[in-house]
């Protein structure tokens, strides 16, 4: 250590102290532009969430709108559809969390059995392409292939004598379409994460298992799965923070009034309350409810991840 | 190689076929759309197109290339992602460099890190965010699409963890040579961080290319929509009133369905082009984000 060591030893003397402060000034300045943006577009809106307690009108602004206490929350709690929306959100989100946890693990285990690296690579390339496409593109594709009159999915089903199904307009099918298409987009990505975890398993563990006479199945059971456990636990805990994130991008592009009953979620409700009905106060109240609950869940999940898997973000 | 039992052989064959099937299944919907986009309107409307174009034509693509809305949206997107990526990269580099210092070398670093972190944990919601953009006068300008999201906190964390993994001697040598922080960042840190920088650049480009909701919400006039927002209004709205009937008559081998398909494919094309690079850096990115001292 060169200079830093010197500074630390002589840190108490006056000129050294000033020199140290001078040395740190550029660091503060480097953060300044980012901090300004965060202040204006992240922290100011956090404070702006007080309009949840106002009868907000854009003309009067935050300072002059009428304060109404918890009226907005009361209003939304007494709306007949609210409980349904909450249920849809949690139901869709949980189904997605579970499907995106279990299927990628199975996929990673099966891929791990493939010895030919070229084939392994090709499969990976094919399954995680949809991850990088936007929900606008994927929804456009889904709307075409799931159409009851012209969609190729219904054409295939009709070969088996199945009557055309309006997947995107039927409350029974809609949540499953959401989960299935989310799996289509994301399971490749998650599979790669698990595969990366698999490659870090010490090969000598397998060698020892072979010496002990373990079959491939036994090796999977006693070496591979335990090796994946830490990352499984980590991802499971971290997904706790997503319980209220049912996927706005996807649902907004796929839903229609016919399937509000089964597909309307908190985020889409906030959007419609705010930008279709212009009920800014009520929309903010719903959004604030979601933000606060999510904060609690995320904090809990990070705490658990830290305790169980010793996970630190920075 | 290990010799396999008959049961093991059946498993290997079955597994290979299964995995190949799943992979194909993932791509079939996209192949179908691609086939539709190169087919004539007749076979497309009659549901004759499966996974190969029927009555091959470039008609749909020619049709789109003459559509001014599509081209305008494309220009907005190109602007957005070049300006947006530049802003985002500059801010990420500066922030990650400062935050990668230890608390004793940069007093306040931990507090600053938490200020960044908190924005992931909590947000004020859609309406206050919209109002902030409205009040700063960015609404309906290109800046609304590149400034509010200029600080990508996940990328900052990724890069700061990478910087922390660099040998301390690099920085100390630069300081002894009399370099300041900015010089050290530009002349020492950036040249040795190519893989990490490639990763976050790709992430940022994909982010800006794919973003659609901010364009839809923050642009008042459709002429200012970036491509994905424009595509959103064209391909996911299920009534046909948006397509003027007159322009359809102009080209008889183009139908609503084939032109939508062609636009979807063009919307995905740049991602497909950078996909090989994404793939190479993606795993590195995942690993980078998790490696800590």
What's the SSE blueprint?
The complex is a heterodimer of chains A (314) and B (293).
Chain A: H1 3-9, H2 14-48, E1 54-55, H3 61-64, E2 66-67, H4 71-78, H5 82-112, H6 117-127, H7 135-145, H8 152-159, H9 174-199, H10 203-211, H11 216-239, H12 248-254, H13 260-263, H14 266-276, H15 280-309
Antiparallel strand pairs in A: 1-2
Chain B: H1 6-37, H2 41-45, H3 59-65, H4 68-99, H5 109-121, H6 126-135, H7 153-165, H8 168-176, H9 181-192, H10 194-210, H11 213-218, H12 227-235, H13 245-250, H14 256-290
Helix pairs in contact in B: 1-14, 3-14, 4-7, 4-10, 4-12, 7-10, 7-14, 8-9, 10-14, 12-14
Description:
The complex is a heterodimer of chains A (about 325) and B (about 290). Chain A starts with a helix and ends in a 5-residue tail after the last helix. Chain A is flat and about 75 Å long. Helix content of chain A is about 70%, strand content about 0%. Chain A folds into 2 domains: about 45 residues, no CATH class; about 230 residues, MetI-like (MetI-like fold). Chain A has about 325 residues and is an all-alpha fold. In chain A, strands 1-2 form a two-stranded antiparallel ribbon. Chain B has about 290 residues and is an all-alpha fold. Chain B has a single domain, classed as MetI-like (MetI-like fold, Orthogonal Bundle), CATH 1.10.3720.10.
What is the residue-averaged pLDDT of chain B?
A: 87
What is the gyration radius of chain B calculated from CA atoms?
25 Å
Task: Tally the helices of chain A.
Answer: 15
How many strand elements of chain A? 2
* Count of discrete domains of chain A: 2
Q: What's the name of the CATH homologous superfamily of chain B?
A: MetI-like
Counting copies of identical and different chains, the oligomeric state is heterodimer
Please give the CATH architecture of chain B.
Orthogonal Bundle
Biggest beta-sheet profile of chain B: none
What is the CA-atom radius of gyration of chain A, in angstroms? 26 Å
CATH superfamily of the largest domain in chain A: MetI-like
Beta-strand residue percentage of chain B: under 5%
Net shape of chain A = flat
Distance between the termini of chain B: 38 Å
CATH topology tier name of the largest domain in chain A: MetI-like fold
**Structural class estimated from helices and strands of chain B:** mainly alpha
CATH class of the largest domain in chain A: Mainly Alpha
Q: What is the share of helical residues of chain B? A: over 70%
The greatest interface here is: A-B, 92 and 103 residues
Shape of chain B: globular
């Amino acid at each position: 250590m060169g200079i830093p060591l010197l500074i630390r030893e002589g840190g108490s003397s006056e000129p050294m102290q000033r020199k140290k402060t001078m040395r740190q000034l550029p660091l503060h300045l480097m953060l300044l532009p980012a901090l300004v943006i965060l202040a204006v577009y992240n922290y100011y809106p956090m404070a702006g969430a007080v309009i949840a307690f106002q009868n907000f009108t854009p003309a009067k602004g935050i300072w002059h709108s009428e304060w109404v206490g918890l009226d907005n929350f009361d209003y939304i709690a007494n709306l007949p559809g609210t409980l349904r929306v909450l249920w849809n959100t949690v139901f869709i989100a949980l189904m997605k969390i579970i499907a995106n946890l279990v299927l990628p693990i199975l996929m990673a285990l099966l891929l791990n059995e493939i010895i030919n690296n070229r084939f392994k690579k090709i499969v990976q390339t094919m399954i995680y392409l949809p991850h990088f496409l936007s929900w606008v593109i994927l929804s456009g594709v889904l709307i075409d292939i799931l159409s009851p009159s012209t969609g190729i999915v219904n054409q295939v089903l009709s070969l088996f004598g199945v009557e055309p199904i309006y997947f995107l307009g039927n409350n029974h099918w809609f949540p499953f379409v959401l989960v299935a298409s989310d799996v289509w987009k994301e399971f490749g990505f998650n599979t790669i994460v698990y595969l990366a975890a698999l490659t870090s398993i010490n090969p000598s563990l397998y060698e020892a298992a072979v010496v002990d006479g373990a079959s491939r199945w036994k090796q999977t059971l006693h070496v591979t799965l335990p090796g994946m456990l830490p990352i499984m636990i980590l991802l499971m805990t971290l997904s706790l923070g997503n319980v209220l994130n049912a996927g706005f991008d996807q649902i907004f592009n796929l839903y229609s009034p016919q399937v509000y009953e089964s597909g309307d979620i908190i985020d889409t409700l906030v959007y419609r309350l705010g930008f279709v009905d212009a009920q800014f106060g009520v929309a903010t109240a719903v959004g604030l409810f979601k933000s606060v609950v999510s904060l609690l869940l995320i904090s809990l999940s990070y705490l658990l991840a830290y305790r169980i898997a010793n996970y630190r973000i920075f | 190689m290990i010799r396999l039992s008959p049961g093991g052989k059946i498993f290997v064959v079955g597994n290979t076929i299964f995995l190949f099937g799943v992979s194909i299944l993932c791509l079939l919907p996209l192949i179908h759309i691609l086939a539709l986009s190169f087919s004539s309107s007749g076979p497309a409307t009659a549901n004759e197109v499966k996974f190969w174009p029927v009555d091959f034509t470039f008609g749909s693509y020619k049709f789109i290339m003459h559509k001014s809305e599509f081209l305008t949206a494309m220009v907005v997107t190109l602007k957005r992602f070049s300006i947006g990526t530049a802003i985002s990269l500059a801010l990420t580099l500066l922030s990650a460099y400062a935050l990668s210092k230890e608390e004793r070398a940069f007093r306040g670093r931990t507090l600053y890190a938490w200020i960044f972190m908190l924005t992931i944990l909590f947000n004020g919601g859609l309406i206050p965010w919209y109002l902030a953009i409205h009040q700063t006068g960015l609404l309906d300008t290109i800046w609304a699409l590149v400034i509010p999201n200029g600080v990508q906190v996940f990328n900052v964390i990724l890069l700061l963890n990478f910087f922390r993994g660099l040998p301390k001697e690099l920085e100390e040598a630069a300081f002894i040579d009399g370099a300041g922080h900015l010089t050290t960042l530009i002349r020492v840190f950036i040249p040795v961080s190519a893989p990490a920088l490639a990763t976050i650049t790709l992430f940022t480009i994909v982010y800006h290319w794919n973003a659609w909701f901010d364009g839809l919400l923050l642009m008042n006039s459709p002429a200012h929509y970036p491509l994905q927002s424009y595509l959103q209004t064209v391909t996911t709205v299920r009534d046909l009133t948006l397509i003027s009937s007159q322009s359809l008559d102009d080209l008889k081998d183009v139908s609503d369905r084939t032109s939508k398909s062609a636009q979807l494919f063009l919307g995905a094309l740049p991602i497909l082009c950078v996909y090989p690079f994404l793939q190479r850096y993606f795993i590195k990115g995942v690993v980078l984000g998790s490696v800590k001292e």
